[in-house]
Amino acid sequence: MFDICELCEPETLAEAKALFRANPELKVIAGGTDVLIRMQHGNLAGAGLLSLRNIPHLDEIQLLADGTLSIGAMAPFTRIFEHELIRKLVPVLGEASVSMGGPQVRNVATIGGNLCNGAVSADSASTLFALDALLKLETAEGERIIPMRDFYAGPGKVNLLPGELLVAILIPREGYEGMGGHYIKFAPRKAMDIATLGVAAVCKIRENRFVELRIGLGVAAPVPVRCFEAEDYAKGREVTWECVQEIARLALKPAKARSSWRASKDYREHLIEVLAQRAVAEAVKRGGGCCAD
Amino acid sequence: MAERIDLNLKVNGADHSVSVHPFARLLDVLREDLRLTGTKEGCGEGECGACSVLLNGRVVNSCLVPAVQAQGAEVVTVEGLAEGENLSSLQAAFLVHNGAQCGFCTPGMLVSATDLIHRCPNPSDDEIRDGLAGNLCRCTGYAKILDAVHTAAEREAAR
Question: At what angle do helices A241-250 and A265-286 cross, to 10 degrees?
Fold first, then answer.
């Protein structure tokens, strides 16, 4: 039995927002693979839950008129990596989605829940950082759209206002068009494990030069980070092996790695450099470039 | 909140109406109310897959499903895999290959493998490993389970 005091399952988004405004202490539950486990561990015990499961259309993946890819917050990871639009436009997000948990977890765990849980290890987070994604947040009063990197406030903390719900993840056309990408999850096990480090790289290559490069790191700092120094360095440069190595060295700049039982600080920094190198090299290849020396 | 709620669901093809605690887990309803004890509780937190069932055709950990979310749903447990007295191809193949030792993970393993073969009728080794990645077995080392799934997939394809 779950230690829940109430479970609200509104049928519309408007109803959910009104309920949440009236009861901001409710804990929002999406797939439940984080929230229910925390309850089983005695955290959140006795909480009231607001489930978004019955709200129609909140799990839809669609291409908006301006080319923005919109992913409903309640889309489960299985649907994301199987979806035609994801395969075609942002295969790197499919790669990150399939790296998560196992089939049972991916069938219920949602991308919105993954982000709102605030874990720095969230496989979708570093990838969405690299894709320059935006988040559509709604309250009963209105909506706001913020960049991913303004969402994370600290370990397990996200910038959601009282009564505010994450409704959709938006990837504008400039975020994905013509970009090659690669996500590497490093963990002791290939499945059912939490990333020791996650690196997502996407890049646009023309005449074997970097037009644009974006790198997102998970578990390299208290929150997911972008590697702006490395990205600026790459811009306009010819793709060579030396260039990729320098990018990987610069990817360490925003890192604030720490030692934990999963890995030491030194090991994490080593991983950042090595995996950034591999992720960028593969993203270059998929973007039509070549960095063989 | 009502002390008990009426839960209507279809399990292994049969309609059931049970009066359950409003915050019971689907796992509790299956094992305790319906006495379908094939579904096991291992970790109780979605790591081991011993409680795997098909919920509306998708494999899930029933320890992480509030029973109310199965209202009106169709559930298949390990007890629903055989057709009468005839074992499913997977069950038969697990027997032939000794795909079970202590047997605790076997019901979940069979349910996940059923889901896998349904999605992916001719799986490669890697696809089987991926399909069963959410099911832990502490005895077999998985090799015999892999063999069993291959054999069952081949038998299904030949049918």
Answer: 140
Structural domain total, chain A: 3
B residues 37..76 contacting A (CB < 8 A): 44-47, 49, 52, 58-61, 64-66, 68-69
Decide which of B50, B80, B110 is a domain's last residue: B80
The answer to whether position A56 is within a domain reads no
The nearest CA of chain B is from the CA of A203 a distance in Å of 29
Q: Which domain holds residue B11?
A: 5-80
Q: Which one of B61, B76, B112, B137 would you mutate to disrupt binding with A, by most A Cβ within 10 Å of its Cβ?
A: B61
Q: Would you tell me the crossing angle of helices A91-98 and A123-130 to the nearest 10 degrees? A: 170
Residue A197: pLDDT band (50, 70, 90) is: very high
The minimum CA-CA distance between B45 and chain A, rounded to whole Å, is: 6
From A37's Cα to the closest Cα of chain B, the distance in A is 6
- Is residue A194 assigned to a domain? yes
> How many Cβ atoms are within 10 Å of B144's Cβ, its own excluded?
19
- Looking at residue B20, its amino acid is V
ipTM of the complex: 0.95
User: How many residues in chain B?
Assistant: 159
Does B25 reach chain A within 8 Å, measured CB to CB? Answer: yes
**Domain holding A254: CATH number?**
3.30.390.50
CA distance readout (Å), A167 to A44, A64, B71: 23, 15, 25
Q: Are residues B23 and B55 in the same domain?
A: yes
Specify the pTM: 0.95
CATH number at residue B53: 3.10.20.30
In tens, the pLDDT along A58-103 reads 999 999 999 999 999 999 999 999 999 999 999 999 999 999 999 9
| Ordered DSSP codes for B55-103 | ETTEEEEGGGSBGGGGTT-EEE-GGGSSBTTBPPHHHHHHHHTT--SS-
Q: In this structure, is residue A147 part of a structural domain?
A: yes
